[in-house]
Amino acid sequence: MKAVVFDIGATLVMGPPVAPNKVIASLIGAEPSDVAAVIMTQTLLDANEVVTALEERFGTLSKHAVDKIIDLWNSQASAAVEIPGATQTVLRLKNRGFKIGLLSDIWTPYYLSVKHAVPNIIEAADTIVLSFQTGKRKPDLFNFVRTLEGLGVQPAEALMIGDTYEHDILPALELGMFAVWLLVRPERERESLVRILNGYLPRPSATIANILELTELPVLKTVTSAVEEEVC
Hints:
- By secondary structure, the protein is an alpha/beta fold.
- The chain has 2 domains: 165 residues, HAD superfamily/HAD-like (Rossmann fold, 3-Layer(aba) Sandwich); 57 residues, no CATH class.
- The protein is 47% helix and 13% strand.
- Strand 6, helix 10 and strand 7 form a beta-alpha-beta unit.
- The longest helix is centred in the N-terminal third of the chain and has 14 residues.
- The chain is globular.
């Protein structure tokens, strides 16, 4: 094992309980997936650019919707909060000699918030692949392949960790990566859990309930840095 790839939302940081695409969808009467295809696949630099992009796709928005989208942008720019143990876990793996990748479906203001919430993780990352920069969203394999290329590793040399089976775990397994499921929101993963238990979907390489458990998994205890050996 040479590299560990982290999802960001609900894996390294927590934010508002409702995703921005769902908030906007409720405002403009659209499907959340259609809104996500607009706001999470373009580098939109401010709220006005978001409104323009949405109007190109859905037509003229009401003043109420525009005002709420501006408010949403501003709130998302400071919404991310580190999950306890996230930085500790990433830096411990980095010090052991693993390459670190970040792979996320995300829009611009929330990523700005993430950079503020976990600056040491951002600095430690060897490659960062974001949907608003590539134009692709998980579970499309494009961003997974791009992440592996950025890390210079083969799928069998990398482990993916994320909280969503469909978007994080399954595509990683399909590529031949190891995959650790951080099961922090089981109520949202009920359908996947049932299908896994009934044998219709492949099991993850491991499942954990807390990110601090990651470094103790046998598959990630095979590389030890000189720094840790000296400390011991």
